[in-house]
Amino acid sequence: MIGKLAPWQRILLLFFLFVIAGPFLPVAVASFAFRWGWPDLLPSIWWWERRDAAPFPLGWDYIFDPVSRVVPALGNTLLIAGLVTLIALALSIPAARTLARHRFRGRSGIELFLTFPLIVPEIAVGIGMLFIFISLGLYGSLWAVVLAHLVPVLPYMIRVLIPVYRELDAGLLEQAALLGAGRRQTFFHVELPLIAPGALAAALFSVVISTNIFLLTFYMGRGQIDTLATLLFSKVSGGGALDPVAAGLTLIICIPGFLFLALSHRIIRENVFSDGIDNS
Amino acid sequence: MTLKLPMMALAGFVALGMVPSVAAAADTAAEQFRDQFLNGELTWDDVSARARQEGEVNWFHWGGSEQLNSWIEQVAAPEMKKLGVTLKTTRLAGTREAVDLVLTEKQAGRGVGEGSVDLIWLNGDNFYTLSSQDALFGSFAEKLPQSRNFEFDSTDPRSQLNLSDFGTPTGGQEMPWSGEQYICYADMARLPRQEAPADFEELEGWLKENPGRFTYVKPPHYIGNTFVQTVLYAFNPSGRGYQDFQKPIEEFTPEALAEIMLPGFEYLKRIEPHLLPVYPQNQQANQALYNNGEVDLACEFGLYLVDSYRKTGAFSETTETLLFPNTGMIKNKNFLTIPVNAPHPAAALVFADLMSRFDMQASKLEKIGYPLGIDRWKLSKQQQETANSVAPSHFGVTAEDLAAVAVPDTNASLVKVIERVWQAYIERKSDKPFPEIVLNAMKAG
C-alpha cells in the first residue's frame, strides 16, 4: 500500500510516524540506562553493566521484582479500565442515542450538563467526592474507584457517541424492522454493528482516561489500591528527569491502550456486515 | 427493550458492590485504648497484644525511592511480621495526599480507630497542618520502650532536634525516624574541590567568574527556604548567626527582624543577576539542571544523598559532597506520626517503636543511607562503633566536618515571614523600604 503513495505522501507519513514514535525513543533508552547525563548522547553506563553489582534491584529488575507491585497494579488497571469502559458504554449508548435522535425541551441544557465534569478540574472534584463517598460509606473498594472514574469518562464517551448516532441512517433500522426483525435483533445485528467503530473509539478514550487517573484512584482507594498511575505518580511527581524505573513504568502504562488498540483493530477488521446479518 | 435489561442488571451489580461498608458507630474500644495508653495505664505487653489482634498496619510514605521501597519489603516488613503484624505500605507521590486523606476522613466524622492511615512519614508543613487541625493520635513518643534512644529531656539543648520540627513543638506526637543535613554537591570533573566555594563570599566571587553556573530551589519550597535561612544565618549582623532565628516571631519587632535579615537579603539580590536565570521548583528539577550540566553545584537535604545517587546512577561517579557553606549547614530530623483516626493504633505504636530500634536504624543507615534518627550519645559504645562502621561515605568530607558546622532550623513562626520577604524583595522586586516589606510579611499572618 505504501508503494502507491506519492513521494510527498511518503515524507508526510514518515514525519507522522516520527512524531508519534519519537517521544518513546528516549524513554525506551532511559529505561535501559544506569548513568545518562550531560553531555552524553547515549547512556555512558548501561543497566546491564551494573545490575549484578547493585545492592537492590535496578531498573527493569526492580520493575519485574514483586517489590515494585507492577504486576498487581497492571491487573488492577486493566480490571478497572475494563469495568469502567463496559459500564460507561452501557450508560452512554442510550444517552447518546436519545440526545441524537429525539428533540425535546432542555436537550441542549442536558448536553451541556453532561460535559460539566470536563470543565471542573480533577483536583477540585477529588476532595469533595471523597467526602461524599466517605459519608455514604462506599470508598476503599475497587468499585468505588470504578464509580469515581466514570465521572470524567462519561462526558467524553457521550460526546463521541452523539455524532455517531446523528450519522446513523435510521432508515436501515426501519428496514430491519420491516423485514421482521425484533427490537432486540435490530439492536444487536444492525444498530450495534453500525455504531461499533464509533463505540470503539469512545471505548479507547475511556481506557486511556481511566488508565491515567491518579488522584481519584488514590482517594477512593484510600491509597490502598495500586494502579499503574499511582505507581508512576509516586516516581515522577517531583518533575525531575526520568530515571530508569520511571521510564520503564511510563512504557508499561501504555500497555492497556495498546492492548485495546490491538483488540479493536481486530474487531473492526471483521468488517461490519462481512458475515451477513441473516445467520441469526 | 433494547438495552434496558442489561443496564439495570449492571446498575444493580454496581450498587450491590458498594453499599456494604456503611459507616460504623464510633470505635469505642479504640478510643478507650488511646486514652489508657496516653494516660500510662497500659504495659507494653498490653500494647503488643492488641497490635497482634489488629494484625496489620498501614504506613503512608513517599514512595519515589526504589532503595527505600526495597528496604521496607526486605527488612522492615519481616521484622514486623515477627511481632505478629502485617506491614502494608502506601507509596505516596506527595505526603500532602496522606494528610488530605486523614483530614477529609476526620471531617466526614471518622474518628479514633475509623480512618485509613496508621502512620505517615513527614516533617515540617505537613506535621504542622495535622497538629493545627487537631488530627494527631497524641503524645506517644516518650512512652515507647525505644524512646531511650532519644534525647527527650528538654533541659538538654540537643533535645531540640527531637522536640521541634521546623520550629513546631512536636509534643511527643511524632517519633524521629531519620536525621538530615542540608548539603551541597558538585561534580569534581567540572568543579574541582579546590575551586569550589567554601562560604557565601567565595560563592559570589565564583559566580562572577562563572555566571549562571548555580541556582537554588525557589522558595516557598522548603529546600529553597532552607538555602535562604542559611544565607541569613551567615550574614546576621548581630554576629549571633543562627541563634537569633531560634526565637519565635512574638519576640521580634519588625525593625529588629528587618535589621538581622537585611544583609542576607541584600546578598541574595546581589547574586541574582549571576545565577542561572531560573529558580527550579523543587530538588528534582535542581538535580536535572545539575545532571544536564547547566549548573556545577546544587544544594538540598541529604547527608548520604551523593552515596545513594551514585549507587543508582542518578549522579556521576565524580560527584562529591561539599563543605559549603562552612558558616553553618542546617540539620533537622524527619518523623513518623500517628493520625487521630488511625485504624490500627496499637500496631502503629509497635511499628514506631520498631523503627526506633538500634538494629533497624543501623540497617537503614547501611543499606539505604538514611541517617540515624536516634541520638548517638544515647547509644552504647558498641552501638556507636557499629553505626560508624556501617555508615556510607560522604565522599570528600568527613562526618566530623559536617557535624562541626551543623546548625538548627529556623523557628517555624519565622519561616513564613522569610518566604514572603523573599517573594516580595527578590521575586517581585518590590521597591518599598526593606523594613516595610518585613512589616507586611509579619502582618500577613
From TrEMBL, chain A:
Compartment(s) where it occurs, according to its Swiss-Prot or TrEMBL record: Cell inner membrane; Cell membrane
UniProt cross-references to InterPro entries, sorted A to Z: MetI-like (IPR000515), MetI-like_sf (IPR035906)
Entry's transmembrane regions: 12-34, 78-100, 112-136, 142-162, 194-221, 241-263
Membrane topology: Multi-pass membrane protein
Keywords linked to the UniProt accession: Cell inner membrane, Cell membrane, Membrane, Transmembrane, Transmembrane helix, Transport
Residue ranges of every copy of the ABC transmembrane type-1 domain listed in the record: 74-264
Gene3D superfamilies the record matches: MetI-like (1.10.3720.10)
Family statement drawn from the similarity comment of this UniProt entry: Belongs to the binding-protein-dependent transport system permease family.
Protein name listed in UniProt: ABC transporter permease
Species in which this protein is naturally found: Sneathiella chinensis
TrEMBL record, chain B:
Keyword rRNA-binding recorded: no
Highest taxon of the lineage: Bacteria
Keyword Ribonucleoprotein: no
UniProt keywords, alphabetically: Signal
Coiled-coil intervals, chain numbering: none
InterPro entries: SBP
Signal peptide positions on this chain: 1-25
Identification of the protein by name: ABC transporter substrate-binding protein
Source species of the chain: Sneathiella chinensis
